Fold this protein.
Amino acid sequence: MRKLYEIARDIQRDWTRPYFGAVPYIQAMSSLSEVEDQYGCDDAESIIRYFLANASTWRGDVARRIKSELKNMIGA
């Protein structure tokens, strides 16, 4: 399983103009490694769920692959 900061880097590389609601969650994932990690008062699973909720405008092959990867990480 890849580290969350690696996934965040790929998101930033592909989604060059992200929806403003997704930006804080991309930034948070950039400093996380595992789903069990904490970011302030939030756990990484919540960060991933919030990101996915705000990433509906991100489309394409890379978006589908990464969204699927994140969903698998949290068991969604």
